[in-house]
Specification:
mainly beta; four-stranded antiparallel sheet; 21 strands
Length: about 300
């Protein structure tokens, strides 16, 4: 991921001791920032076996931190600085259906698994199974339901491969279709690919959009991005830089729409390389999608 929004990929990792580490990349090397600290210079420490997920969890177009731990809890650290160098101080223990999420050696991952345009939480754990926490709120105000164990089509719970328990997962679109797939690893290093399928008729039966949603790609892009949007009522579509400043207005969206951003600002000049956010806003709600411009 691009931790400091400079257009170069970086590495964010936890470790056995429970710390958070960031390795900043450039065109020729990486610089390590080990045992990252809070704003008050206290070291971020969740005990043992930390597992980070960096994501805009509260919909403010800022990179936040979710941190799993061997103790079993998932901690949410909102970004209190900016996207050029996220910093944290406050910490919230995450809940689902009113109860604290508790899974030994929990490994959080954020992804819109059910394709309702709202980010969900998926967690691996020491027992090797994968839990799904559906977000029934909004990207700006997440509300998670009670855990569900992910299963195969025949109802068999999905269990990490290999000879040792423990699961870590990564979701995406492995085969290039519109159905999410995921990679699942075990503590012995074995990795399995699970290809997603949906029952016949699910796509055809999609209802009209009831919330704002958008996707943008490709990522990274040299300038041209395709933006797929949905809005139940009129919503403004803009492109912002990583400080939240609007660089391009792309008009009003109602219903389902596809727009193209040519990588230029409102003055017609190409934007610089870096991280940008497409933002759809209306009826007091907003949704955003990240675009990395690399020229």
């Amino acid at each position: 991921m691009d931790w400091n929004s400079d257009g170069w990929w970086d590495i964010v990792s936890g470790d056995r001791e429970g710390y958070l580490n960031v390795f900043i990349g450039s065109d020729s090397s990486m610089v390590g920032y080990k045992m990252l600290k809070l704003r008050d210079s206290t070291v971020i420490d969740v005990g043992t076996n930390s597992q980070p997920a960096v994501v805009d969890w509260n919909g403010d177009i800022m990179k936040d931190l979710l941190l799993g731990s061997e103790l079993g809890y998932v901690y949410f650290y909102p970004n209190q600085a900016d996207n050029s160098w996220p910093m944290f101080q406050a910490c919230e223990t995450m809940r689902a259906a009113g109860d604290y999420i508790y899974l030994n050696r929990v490994n959080p991952y954020v992804f819109d698994l059910d394709r309702d345009w709202v980010r969900d939480l998926i967690c691996g754990a020491n027992d090797g199974y994968v839990r799904f926490y559906k977000n029934i709120g909004w990207n700006e105000l997440p509300e998670l339901t009670a855990e569900e164990t992910l299963k195969l089509l025949d109802g068999t719970p999905i269990l990490a491969p290999g000879t040792y328990s423990g699961s870590r997962c990564s979701f995406g679109y492995w085969d290039g279709d519109t159905v999410p797939d995921f990679l699942l690893s075990a503590y012995d290093g074995t990795v399995a690919l699970y290809r997603g399928v949906y029952p016949t008729g699910v796509e055809e039966g999609r209802s009209a959009p009831v919330r704002l949603a958008l996707r943008a790609g490709p990522n990274p892009t040299t300038g041209r991005s395709t933006i797929s949007c949905e809005a139940p009522t009129n919503a403004d579509l803009v492109v912002c830089d990583d400080l939240g400043r609007v660089v391009r207005h792309l008009g009003v969206v109602t219903g389902a729409s596809v727009r193209v951003w040519d990588g230029r600002n409102d003055s017609g000049r190409p934007v610089n390389s870096g991280v940008y956010f497409c933002r759809l806003s209306g009826s007091g709600r907003s949704a955003s999608a990240r675009v990395v411009v690399s020229r």
